[in-house]
Every structure is written in structure tokens, then in C-alpha cells.
Amino acid sequence: MTDELDLVVTSNMLRTAIRAKLCSGATQRAIWGLIAHYARDGAHMRRREEGGVHRLPVEVIPHERRASFLDALNELRDHDRRRTLRTARAA
Length: 91
What we know:
The chain has helices at 2-6, 11-23, 28-38, 63-90; strands spanning 47-48, 54-55. It is mainly alpha-helical. It has a two-stranded antiparallel ribbon. A hairpin with a 5-residue loop joins β1 and β2. α2 runs parallel beside α4 (63-90) and α3 packs antiparallel against α4 (63-90). The longest helix has 28 residues, at 63-90.
């Protein structure tokens, strides 16, 4: 039973990871797109944010996909950093 509890990724954990990525420079649009990608099929956009971006709550990510979402979120920062570096070098 302890092993099962160690594998649970809560919505609060997802929000904390997302806040950390936002603080490190990832864009809201990129993160919201990632949430939409990992959301369960049929999840509907619940809110419309500034700039016309639709936002899904993290609760729509099924528990079995949350670890993969966190991995992709971690990679997102590295991808954004490389793109930022390329843009800075080109300028």
C-alpha cells in the first residue's frame, strides 16, 4: 500500500510544478497547451483567459498520465531555453 501512495501525483503537486515552470520563464500558452494535450478525451475548455487562450484546470489530466505530464513539463523548460538562446544569438 505504501508503494501505491508514493505514485499518486495530486493536483496541488501539478500546480506547484506549473508555478515553478512559469517562474523559470515558460509561457502560460505553452503550459496550457501541454495541459490540453494530456487532458482526458472530451475535456472541455472551462475558462477563457486574456488573449483568447482557453485554459483547462489540471484536474482534467487523468492520474495515469500525470507522471508523463510532469516529464513533458520538465522538458518544456529546456525546449523554451534553447529557443530563447537561438533567438538571442540571432539578434
